[in-house]
Amino acid sequence: MNAANVNYPFERPVIIVAAPRSGSTLLFETLMKSTDFWTIGGESHAVFENIDRFNPMMGMCDSNALSAADATPEIVARIRLLFLKQLRNSSGQAYQAQASEIIPPPRLLEKTPKNALRVSLLNEIFPDALFIYLFRNPRENISSMMDAWQSGRFVTYRKLAGRENPWSLLLPPGWQAYNDASLEEVTAFQWRSANTTILSELSKLDRKRWMTVSYGQQAHDTVNVIRRICEFCDVSPDGILASLSDGRLPLSRYTLTPPKADKWHKNAKALSKVIPGLHDTVEFVRMTADELPDSEFDLAIESSLSEHAAPTGVDSASNVGRNHPCPCGSGKRFKHCHGDLGRQREEN
User: Fold this and answer.
1) Per the structure, how many domains does the chain have?
2) Does residue 329 have a pLDDT over 70?
């Protein structure tokens, strides 16, 4: 398939691929402020799953995994057209409304968590696409996925064959084996499936067509990360950087609770059961996405909790008022710092 073909309506689409709850919505909402990008405004579930053979509810496939073999000429043409019809720029103007003007082919920006299992299909639909792989430490990522399941806000399939309860987030191949599994086992399975599939497929492409960035880099070195991404995508960072407040990112539309470095601690007991089984996946990511810093691969549970233990002599129940400054020197109120951690440990 030739991207230069006159029937190909796009120019170097940019596709963000990541496990669910990796921060991909935040990255998407940040990049879409560029005047160079066009988007459909949100995620593309309907674009793909309005095609019966791509919808697990229709009985013609049993997961979100799609490959180049699924890219028939008719389906490729249909998906391209569906994207094209819904395109909007950063000002909300429709691409079709400008069809009478002489404008270059649109730079599509796309993000949907299910794309983690569709890289080879997307490469057939958009053969000149660039990919941004977003990685998040499994402690934080799986904890956030657990919270998403428990919230009930991220149900993707109400009824699946052979399953009584609704399914949330990504549906990888082999999900049937997890019908009776614990929540931490299901989310660890989703995290592992997403990251291994993404990198297995991206590694088959020219290395110049994909880059990696981490959730931690995005959160703590925002301006430099945005500049690096824009350089990779060949778009201007000006509109994006101007939208940042003091160089910081806003909350995304799907944020459940405000970000906090130790938020995963509340699920530490459950995480300790599944994190050891992810070492091979983490090492695969480390070796394949070799530009990520080593700090992103920390899997420690107990030592991290110990670092945040209450200072010696501090009794979370009586010695310090919950609204007083925490003795650890964090600047937070005790109830939001070590007092909160003490409560979480008691609950666990």
Assistant:
1) 2
2) no
